[in-house]
Inverse folding.
């Protein structure tokens, strides 16, 4: 178990590219234990690609990704799998298995990686589904019968199935109504404080950044341009960052108006 | 009774912890001491609450002590989230259930056929519109599908028919040689290939090749809401997607059937020459003399009907695809199985029909 404040994810000199198109070049980023890190950036700056590179879905061309002190790019498959069990990933549209019901989806990681009895698995899956704010009757529904917001919640329930230490969330509040989005924010914050979760959050949602993120990392110019708290962001004078945190939407979210 | 839990109350240790507390479950008064617990996750919290609830439901008492502030919070979060037990799930009767399933399946089968007929009607109505306004026909699309369904299928259909001719001649030779009736191999090959096998096997190959492709293409468009987008743009999906495919199929299948007939006869003639010394000249003479042209006509008359079956089933199943990826795969396979089945049923009905009218 890592201690509060240690950098449990360390990305150094990351370079990812697709063909000739370079997405990241010399990207450095630390994620500290127990914090909620919000990753922002314009469309096409590679926020999701960064997430995918850290969890191993995209193979970087250069650089290193250290998670819990293990170099994920140069380690045995066995060690990799051990680390992978300690994180959960929620994809943009939930990425639920369409042939399984919501409960079966949440049970998948438990079935694969623990020796829990069927009754316990069922009870835990129902608990997780209820924790993310889905009604009990959603348990037996198939993903195609759910709305986009419900699929996201179900995806979060699956990501949390084994109580991971890190959760990666790809645009958790995009496409949710404002009430649902604030409830989602509150849920993530609550889980983070009670479980000591570390949250890596890719988002466009200024309200989310404002409400729950301890630290913000801005992707620009193919690297992490700046990291810091919301207060720090307001002082950055790079044009994009300035526009982002001082634009009309930022004012609507109440950013920079308190002081 | 006091129960002391220590260390990590986590999902990985859940069964072990459950064994540890099982002894206490029977006691009337339990105190659960969590002061030595240094980590607790939601699964651990659930176990503690599950145990407490179970004891309290039996009328016993269960107090939790020694929790830290964080653990208290977590226990509270989990306690609020535990879903209410519902007893609405009714026990099922095995036999009645089985009968009900059969009834439902039969009914849904009948319904599916009715729906396919409805779809056919819709397509025919749209065809009528296109005939009245020929400018609305998507000619480019028809030509594209003609190439896909017709031209690109020529090699596989030719090879298949050629081999069928070879097999028929070879098998026929073994039997006919016993009677010294080698020359009848021509009748055997010509009638079976022209009347039945040429067009039937072509239809089966086209159903597997193009019918499945129709379902997959239309289905994936349906899944990504492209069909809905078309409707909002004032485009009629039947006119844009279904009619060109169907028309191309109706034109291409008889042509492919003709190719199959020719290749089947070629294969048969070659094998008859090698195996039975029936020279190509003799084969041709025998073909002219004893095989009525109606055998050829009977085969090709069926082609457009098979084309309609394959096209309608393929497009209909594509239109039925819902939002999930699983239904696309399921319906594609349904489309192939159903269209081959219906083609064979139609073939059987044609056989009876032609026998009755004496062709």
């Amino acid at each position: 178990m890592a201690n509060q404040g240690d950098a449990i994810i360390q990305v150094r000199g990351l370079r990812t590219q697709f063909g000739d198109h370079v997405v990241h070049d010399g990207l450095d980023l630390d994620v500290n234990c127990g914090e909620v890190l919000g990753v922002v950036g314009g469309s096409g700056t590679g926020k999701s690609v960064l997430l995918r590179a850290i969890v191993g879905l995209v193979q970087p061309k250069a650089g290193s990704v250290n998670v819990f002190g293990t170099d994920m790019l140069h380690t045995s498959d066995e060690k990799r799998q051990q680390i992978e069990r300690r994180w959960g990933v929620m994809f943009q549209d939930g990425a639920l298995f369409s042939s399984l019901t919501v409960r079966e989806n949440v049970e998948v990681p438990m079935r694969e990686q623990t020796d829990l009895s069927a009754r316990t698995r069922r009870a835990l899956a129902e608990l997780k589904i209820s924790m993310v704010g889905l009604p009990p009757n959603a348990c037996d529904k198939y993903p195609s019968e759910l709305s986009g917001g419900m699929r996201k919640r179900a995806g979060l329930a699956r990501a949390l199935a084994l109580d991971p230490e890190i959760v990666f969330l790809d645009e958790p509040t995009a496409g949710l109504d404002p009430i649902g989005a604030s409830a989602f924010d509150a849920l993530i914050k609550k889980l983070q404080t009670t479980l000591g979760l570390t949250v890596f959050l890719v988002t466009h949602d200024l309200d989310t950044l404002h409400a729950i993120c301890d630290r913000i990392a801005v992707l620009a110019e193919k690297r992490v341009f700046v990291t810091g708290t919301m207060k720090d962001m307001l002082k950055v004078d790079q044009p994009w960052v300035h526009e982002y945190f001082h634009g009309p939407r930022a004012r609507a979210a109440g950013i920079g108006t308190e002081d | 009774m006091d129960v002391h839990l220590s260390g990590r109350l986590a999902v990985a240790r859940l069964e072990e912890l459950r064994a540890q507390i099982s002894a206490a479950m029977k006691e009337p008064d339990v105190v659960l001491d969590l002061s030595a617990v240094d980590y607790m996750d939601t699964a651990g919290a659930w176990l503690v609450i599950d145990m407490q609830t179970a004891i309290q439901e039996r009328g016993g008492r269960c107090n939790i002590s020694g929790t830290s502030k964080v653990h208290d919070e977590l226990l509270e979060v989990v306690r609020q989230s535990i879903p209410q037990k519902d007893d609405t799930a009714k026990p099922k009767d095995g036999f009645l259930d089985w009968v009900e399933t059969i009834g439902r399946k039969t009914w849904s089968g009948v319904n599916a056929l009715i729906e396919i007929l409805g779809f056919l009607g819709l397509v025919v109505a749209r065809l009528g519109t296109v005939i009245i306004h020929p400018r609305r026909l998507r000619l480019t699309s028809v030509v594209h599908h003609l190439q896909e369904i017709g031209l690109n299928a020529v090699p596989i259909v030719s090879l298949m028919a050629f081999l069928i001719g070879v097999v028929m001649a070879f098998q026929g030779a073994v039997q006919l040689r016993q009677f010294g009736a080698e020359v009848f191999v021509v009748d055997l090959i010509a009638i079976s290939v022209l009347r039945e096998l040429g067009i039937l096997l072509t239809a089966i190959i086209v159903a597997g090749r193009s019918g499945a492709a129709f379902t997959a293409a239309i289905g994936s468009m349906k899944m990504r809401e492209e069909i809905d987008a078309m409707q909002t743009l004032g485009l009629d999906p039947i006119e844009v997607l279904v009619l060109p495919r169907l028309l191309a199929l109706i034109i291409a299948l008889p042509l492919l059937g003709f190719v199959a007939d020719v290749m089947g006869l070629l294969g048969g003639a070659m094998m008859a020459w090698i195996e039975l010394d029936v020279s190509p000249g003799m084969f041709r003479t025998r073909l002219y003399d004893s095989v009525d042209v109606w055998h050829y006509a009977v085969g090709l008359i069926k082609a457009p009907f098979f084309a309609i079956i394959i096209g309608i089933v393929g497009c209909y199943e594509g239109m039925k695809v819902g939002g999930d990826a699983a239904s696309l795969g399921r319906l594609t396979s349904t489309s192939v199985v159903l269209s081959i089945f219906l083609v064979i049923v139609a073939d059987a009905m044609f056989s009876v029909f032609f026998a009755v009218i004496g062709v």
